[in-house]
Every structure is written in structure tokens, then in C-alpha cells.
Amino acid sequence: MRLDIDPNLVNLLVSYAANVGADATRWVAGKFRQRTDGDADTSVATLNLSIQAQLSASGVRDGDAEKVAAFILDTPILGYLFMLVDAGKSGDYQDLPRKEICALLILEAGLDEVAAGVASQVLVAVLQASNESSSRSARRSGRRSRPLSGIQLFGAQEAKRRLLSKVGSPSLSDIREYSSSFRREMGRKFSRIQLQHLDNGTEQQLEDLYVEPELRLQEPSAAQRPEVKPAEVITLFARAVIQGPAGSGKSTTVRRLATDVANRSNGEVVPIVVELRKYSAQQALGPQIFLEHIRQSVTQLMQQAPPESWLEYLLATGRAVVFFDGLDEVLSAGTRAEVRDAVITFAQMFPASSIVVTSRYTGYDLAPLDKREWTHIGVEELREDQVHEYASRWFKLKDGEADIGDRAKGFIDESRTYASDLRSNPLMLSMLCSIYYARGD
């Protein structure tokens, strides 16, 4: 049907998306935005009423129009919807954004199939007009997220549709309550780290030892390798691969990112960590096995099974960041390729959720992820100032504040002379600290 879209609604939506960082160019960061009192100001209230008016004029019942407007203003994936509709301009994908938005309205707004079908047509038209307007006005600022390709967005459309149809009408209140408890447990679990060579494996607070690594984009030219802050791995990139040598801190970075996601005050996004070494021991591999593996891990952590469709809901609505840790730890090259393919299909089934994979450089080329679709980020060696900071933190854990300066300085001076190449690796640096301390120097 032909829709006449209110230009004032378009202007309000473009302004709102730009203000909250949820447009198509910053769609990943938009999932993590902090809700503020400003979200409920007069302009947002006007936008809410304008969305309802546009829907009502198109035949959507008032009660359903109110639910759809609330969905648009509350969803963490508004930027994803902008990108989805923009990708659907191609003839190959034209009707797919509407179908996905329709499924989301049934799932999140509680609309019936007929109402969701009409409302999704209206939303696609509004989002298309808003995309065109924002492109003309060039209001976007800041670092942009890489858009997903058509195959990434729509490559597993049938599998995704079948999965969403099985979700049914889950209890969103139960899902939110369980998610809140799960975030607390993940924050507790991943905020601690166990070092086997420190006090016989005693757990330590990650915050006490953590030194932020230097990460750089893996571009062909060294001059084109801008630095990436660890937090930006999940706020800028929907699909990322963190690479580095053994002991360079890849898994520690995952722990820190998972903790940060779990402790975010807006409480929308859940961190999920999959240790690929454990997953690859399964008898069968594939994206559905990932889902079952994650469910089992979650149940073990929580000592309680999640609500029905909890995991599928989070993944389908962009409320999850999934870390696949240790692709290199899948030792068989053939099995590694199977795991890689399962990760790709999993990512296609849940394009709204963010995916991070870690791997050593060694052996990665046997089963790599496409650099055109996955942003590759390298962990750099520790700089001199980072070595100093880590050593100070390590010896403070052992000695407290007493004599920390002398002990750390002695270690730094000696290790510079005899092990300067080894101490640029975090794992080796920690072991050197342990050896130095055990000598009683």
C-alpha cells in the first residue's frame, strides 16, 4: 500500500536517533546507550504521539499503535532497524526487513500477526524516509560502526524465522528478571581471575591486576592501524576478531569486557562467553548446538534453568554480546573449520547481537573469518609503562603497600637486563614476577 509519511515525524525520529546515538552509522553503540531523564522530554513525547498518529492513520488500532511507539523508543536496536531497512533497498532483500520487524513486533510489542503486518509496513516506510533525510542532513558524528552486509543480515533468514516462530510469546518479565540475576552472576564470575603461579592458584580481583592492553586494527599498512580501546571492540564493531600471541591477554580482555557489559547500569545487554575448546568436544557441531551448549552453561552457573525462549529472545533482539573465546584451541584443523562455519551461521541467525571471536595468530589462516565482514584487531606487546604498571600491581597484591616501590623497581631493572623480550608478554611477565618474588630479592 502507498503510505503518506508525515515529514514532521521523520524529522523528529532523525533528531531522536542522532541525539541518542542510535542511527544506522552507530547502531552498535546505540545498544549500550544509557537511558536518561532526557529520554522523556517534550520532544520524545511528541515523537511518541507522532508515531502513534502515523500508525492510526494507516489502520492500526490505538492500543497497538501505543505499543509500537513504545517499542521504537525503548528498543536497544533502533539503529539496527535503520540499517536493516537501508540494506533492504536492494531488490534481493526488499521484503525481508518488513518480515523481521513484523516478527519483532509480535515478540516484543505483543501484537497479533495481522496488526504486526500492517505496523511493520508503516515502520519500514518511516525508517526509509528517515534514512534518506539523515543522509541528506549529514548529522552523524563520531566513529561509525561498520554496516553488516546483506548476506550477514539475511543469509540465514529461513532458519531465523523458524527459530522466532518457536519462541512464541515468552514472559518478558521473567526474562528480564532472570537476565538481571544472570548479569550479576557473570559480573561476579568474570571479575575474578585465577593465576596458577600466584599463591597456588588463588583467585584475585581482575581489577587489581588488569592493565588495559593496546589494541590496533589489523590493516594492510602499519600506518593505517589506528588504536582501538578495548571498550570499543563491542561498541563499534558488531563482528570482531581479537588476535594475539599466546599469553597476550586475549582471554583476559574478554573477561574484562564481559564484566563491563554485566555491570552496565542500563541493564539491557547480557554477556555470554563460549569457550570453544569445551564446545568443540561435543559429539556434534553447529549453531543449534551452540544454543544448547550456552543453555547448559547458563543453567550450571545459575543453578536454575532460564525461562523458556530466554536465550533466543536475547539473541534475536540484540540484547546479547557473545564472546567465542579460543578458536585456536580447537586443535584439529578440520574441526576448527567446522567451528568457524558454525560461528558464521550463528552470527547470521542473530545479526542484531554482537559477536567477538578470539584466536592466536598461529594456525588462524587454516580457518579464518572473512576480513571483509569481521573486523580484525591485534593485541600489541606491552609497552614499558604497561610493564611498570603491571609489576606494581602484582607486587602490591603480594606485599600490600609496604616496600612496593623498591620491590617493583628491583624487578623492573633486573628484567630489563635479562628478560626484556619476555616481559612484553603479559603471561610471561606474570611468571617472571612470581619467580623474582620466590627468590626473595
UniProtKB/TrEMBL annotation:
<dbReference type="InterPro" id="IPR027417">
    <property type="entry name" value="P-loop_NTPase"/>
</dbReference>
<dbReference type="InterPro" id="IPR007111">
    <property type="entry name" value="NACHT_NTPase"/>
</dbReference>
<protein>
    <recommendedName>
        <fullName>NACHT domain-containing protein</fullName>
    </recommendedName>
</protein>
<dbReference type="Pfam" id="PF05729">
    <property type="entry name" value="NACHT"/>
</dbReference>
<feature type="domain" description="NACHT">
    <location>
        <begin position="238"/>
        <end position="360"/>
    </location>
</feature>
